[in-house]
């Protein structure tokens, strides 16, 4: 007997952990403007009808996920996100589904993608970059303590919250690995660590490598190993061919050079990135207030007044 594709997708969703407090459906939300579109669906600004809670609703089509054989990736992302609580990690609230779609209820990041902000500004100053380095390092320290490796850190997967704080998002390539060692090639070309390109086992230090690449791109406006072809990019990464423009400050050069080490175990640890003199001097990180009150979605909403 043939099983329809939408039923296959349904099985996928129903096999996820039953951590939800309420059975949600699309009628529970007022759908607003689109926030972004992708290969498998789109993200919309949404308001929960009863509480007026503002959130981002990520809509994914089951047929597209099934065709690309990415059902397991969605399952993994939900399983991982449901257990993460950190001010610099995009909050996952819940999920629901219908015959053809899966809906992820996510924290709304009012200032959008870091990628678009970087395109607009061309590059960032020392203060802004150092602040981002402290925030992303703290988020990754938390992830790694939970045995989670992100594996796809890049400006497109970093969002900006209400106060401009960094929010790590898109855990589709992440993995919860008890041993913290993997061999799968994943992530974005410019941000791949040498050991991933070589197909060697890798651990949480691939995320540390990405922090160094991100720091360089924030300051310079382009990735450090960018090249006309994928093959040349890989070659530059494996050789760690690092060249700094003259305007990059010495403190930042020192930090990036210590992070982008070919040997994973010799990369500057995340805690030491946060404590690096350049980061300590330039960062203006402001921790968000802790809210005890909750609403119908189970969390405090910092963006209740966001425009729909």
TrEMBL record:
Pfam families: Pkinase. The keyword Nucleotide-binding applies. Its EC number is 2.7.11.1. Residues 29-279 form the Protein kinase domain. ATP binds at residues 39, 58, 107-109, 156-157, 170. InterPro entries: Aur-like, Kinase-like_dom_sf, Prot_kinase_dom, Protein_kinase_ATP_BS, Ser/Thr_kinase_AS. It catalyses: L-threonyl-[protein] + ATP = O-phospho-L-threonyl-[protein] + ADP + H(+); L-seryl-[protein] + ATP = O-phospho-L-seryl-[protein] + ADP + H(+). It is an enzyme of class 2 (transferase). The active site is at 152 (proton acceptor). SMART domains: S_TKc. Keywords: ATP-binding, Kinase, Nucleotide-binding, Serine/threonine-protein kinase, Transferase. It comes from the Eukaryota. Coiled coil: none annotated. GO terms for molecular function: ATP binding; protein serine/threonine kinase activity. There is a cross-link at residue 154 (Glycyl lysine isopeptide (Lys-Gly) (interchain with G-Cter in SUMO2)). Belongs to the protein kinase superfamily. This is non-specific serine/threonine protein kinase.
